[in-house]
Every structure is written in structure tokens, then in C-alpha cells.
Design brief:
Number of strands: 5
CATH architecture of the largest domain: 2-Layer Sandwich
Number of domains: 2
Number of helices: 6
Distance between the termini: 86 Å
Strand content: 5-15%
Largest sheet: 5 strands, antiparallel
Length: 218
């Protein structure tokens, strides 16, 4: 999920989608003609993304640092491609976006791309709340908001045999414990080396003492 903070950012996304023939990274350029776009009926087919945003937001005053919209990429593991019904997957994604971002009028565009290794969706949503105000915090204000969105998406995708990814805090916990184990292991190795050196030093001292005692008895 990427924040868009300028109208020019909206135009840039639209340019990217309209001129995909110029992109070198596409795995299946012959499938570009299969890409398609979905838009809510409340917007005109010829309206630019920026114009749709202006129509939805209206004349309200916008803060200088406000999040104007979000670009959301929805996809799945390449291994799942042959196991799911792609059309049904797209339909459920459209429903999920509408239900979790304030209704279909907040979903400015949904681009379905079929010309890369894994087909995926690029969606642009405007965070207008139920009072009609541009309010990104209403949807993604805290980490718990984002976690709930991810949980919700995971549940929506279960019927397609897709599972939710690792939660952020679980990933951080795993990284912490992994680093902690490595740190403790290094400490133990260092201690073993020190103990070994200490024992070797003590053994050498004992050997020297033995030699000195032998010399005294001669």
C-alpha cells in the first residue's frame, strides 16, 4: 500500500498503466491486450484519475501533508495461479476494496494486469470517511488498523485457497528471537574459548611449577 500525496502522483500512476507497452520488465508482453480496467459507474469512462479524485473529494480544504489516495497492489503466490478461478478472485477483491475503503465511490480505479509473471491488481482508493471528509487515519491510522485490514483480506481470500502472510509483529518477533539466539550462541562460543585458554594457561602453570619443584629437589 503506497501513499499518494499529490495530484501529480495520481497522474503518474495513470501514465504507468496507460503506457505499459514501454515497460521492459513485463514477462508476457503478448498478453498486454488482455489487461483491463474496472471503474465504479459513478465515474465517467473518459474521466482522468485526477478528475475522479476531485469529483469524490469535492471542494473541501485539503491539508498540505494529507494523504490524497492509496495505491494498493493485490496478488498471490505464482504457485497458486493454476489452483484458483482468476475471475472469481478478481470479483472478491473488488468487493473487499469496496467494503473496507468506504464504498465503491472511494475506489477510483482497478487495473487488472495479466502481462507479468503473476497476474495482479493495481487499485487506487481515496480515503474519504463516512462524513465525506478526506481522512486517511480512519482507514490506516495505526499499525492495528493495517493489521485488521490484512486479517480481513486474508479471510476474504480463504475461499480461493490463499493464506494470510506472516503478521508484522510475528515477523519482528522471529527476527528478534533469531538475532537473540545468534547473540547468545556467539557469547557461549566466546566463553568456551576463554575457558579453554584459561584452562590451557593453568595447565601450563602447573607444568612449570612441576619443573621448578623438580629442579629444587636435584
Amino acid at each position: 500500500m503506497e501513499k499518494i500525496k499529490s495530484v501529480s502522483g495520481l497522474s503518474g500512476i495513470e501514465h504507468h498503466d496507460n503506457y505499459r507497452d514501454e515497460l521492459p520488465h513485463r514477462s508476457h508482453p503478448d498478453l498486454s491486450c488482455e489487461n483491463y480496467t474496472l471503474r465504479p459507474p459513478c465515474y465517467g469512462a473518459d474521466q482522468s484519475l485526477a478528475d475522479r479524485w476531485k469529483q469524490r473529494v469535492g471542494s473541501q480544504k485539503i491539508r498540505k501533508n494529507a494523504v490524497l489516495a492509496y495505491e494498493i497492489v493485490l496478488s498471490f503466490s505464482p504457485n497458486a495461479l493454476n489452483k484458483l478461478n482468476f475471475a472469481s478472485w478478481v470479483e472478491d477483491n473488488v468487493c473487499w476494496l469496496s467494503e473496507n475503503f468506504g464504498g465503491e465511490s472511494n475506489v477510483l480505479t482497478i487495473e487488472i494486469h495479466l502481462d507479468e509473471t503473476t497476474p495482479h491488481i493495481h487499485a487506487v482508493v481515496v480515503p474519504v470517511d463516512d462524513r465525506g471528509k478526506l481522512n486517511s487515519k480512519h482507514y490506516t491510522g495505526t499499525r492495528s488498523h493495517l493489521s485488521r485490514l490484512q486479517d480481513s483480506y486474508g479471510k476474504a481470500m480463504l475461499s480461493h485457497g490463499l493464506e494470510r502472510g506472516i503478521r508484522y509483529y510475528e515477523r519482528e518477533t522471529k527476527i528478534y528471537h533469531s538475532d537473540h539466539r545468534k547473540y547468545n550462541a556467539k557469547k557461549r562460543i566466546q566463553k568456551e574459548k576463554e575457558d579453554y585458554e584459561h584452562d590451557r594457561f593453568n595447565r601450563k602453570k602447573l607444568q612449570n611449577i612441576g619443573k621448578y619443584q623438580e629442579e629444587l629437589t636435584r
